[in-house]
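[Meeting: bench + compute handoff]

Bench side (C.D.) handed over the final construct sequence. Compute side (W.E.) agreed to return the predicted structure before the next meeting so the bench team could plan truncations. Sequence as handed over:
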Amino acid sequence: MEPISLDRVVGLLGRWSAQRGALHELLAGRLRQLIEDGSLPPDTVLPPDRALAEALAVGRNTVVAAYRTLREEGRLERRQGSGTRVTSAWLTAARNAAVESVGPMYLHLLEPADGAIQLTCASPLLPPPELAELLPAVTGRLAAIGPDMGYHPAGVPELRQAIADRYAQRGVPTSAEQILVTNGAQQALSLLIRLLVAPSDEVLLAAPTYPGAFELSQEAGARIRAVRADDGLDLAEYLRAVADRPALAYVISAFHNPTGELLPSLQRRRLAETCERHGVPLIDDEVLAELDLDGAAPEPLDGAAVINVGSLSKLVWGGLRVGWVRAPEPLITRLARFRAVHDLGGPVLDQWLAAALLPRLDELRERRIAELRARRDRLCAELDANLPWAFRVPAGGQTLWATLPYGDASAFAQHALRFGVAVLPGQSLDPQRRSERCLRIPFHYPPDDLAEAVRRMAEAWRSYDGTAAVAAVNALVV
């Protein structure tokens, strides 16, 4: 079996050190769990101890001791000339399980709760009161429902119309036939990429970006070409030079994840026109587009090549699994047929609830923006006062993009876990891995919790030397 990549192992380890105890015991415990559940199958060759130590920001002795513990248990073996590997004699129920590719952002959702402050995912922490207020009337509709099997691959008609009306309200006339309702924006992206991208097709991504987009593209077997987001996403020169057009381009033009920046209106129009001229479908991820913290939200990107993807997860609550695709009607028809093969439609009650909520969305949005603005300002003030990191105040969205003056963000993120804070390093949001000194820091927590998170990061930073040569046994962790 080929050696597993260092990045893959670090990703699988997750929040391994966010507990109390000696680091080598915590590391051995997490590796043991990965072996037993089949994530590290028999004969998997693990990274050399020195390389893994550097990636985890621990001393080499920590990894050596963890490997030794697992060798003594019979789970690992060391073969001369071929390194340390999972023993082929170690049989588990998951022995033949495929190793799933789970990015760090998703892995944190799968981890059991611990004492770490979670700065890896960004979404409202509580559902708004409007959901509880509307729910009795929505569930009461079940008693009066007419003949309806409950299968709606394109979405419940009234929700499709409500989403179309919302687009018209934002300045872009839209019909219900241009809307496909999905179980969140992640499913919308998954359907689009699976429908439009074949193995070896090229996909253009603005980098850094939302990791779900490039992970889905990799899963589809695409060749990913990263376009730097700070270049204004001007694709004209590149598209003129290539013989084969890309299968699609993916951008976040309004309040970019992770930087929070807004692409200027002229560049937004030029981007849409360029993709239309070259026949490249352009997915504009609008999940954050209405979270404008300093002014009026921009009109949605529009044009014959544009496919808008949105959801209620960041504006309302992640537990309301309602997303959508807005696109030309022929593509929506194809998507609905494709979706029906895999999923006959989302929960009707959720869709009724979303349809009832949309007319009240402006009031909820204003409250959410005021909350996020106060939290952003507190985070910026705390970072200014306590850490020598560079950042721009984000214009919208719910994340801040900070640059370390030295060191490696992945190593620092591992180090910060020992101080009780989980943060997402820039490498996990950049298919080019050129954001190695950047961290994405969300501000969805209450102000005092953000202040505590910064205090923990500042404490971690004071003991981080930037070379990943952290002493092996500062054994007790927070």
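W.E. noted at the follow-up: The longest helix spans residues 361-386. C.D. will use this when planning the next construct.
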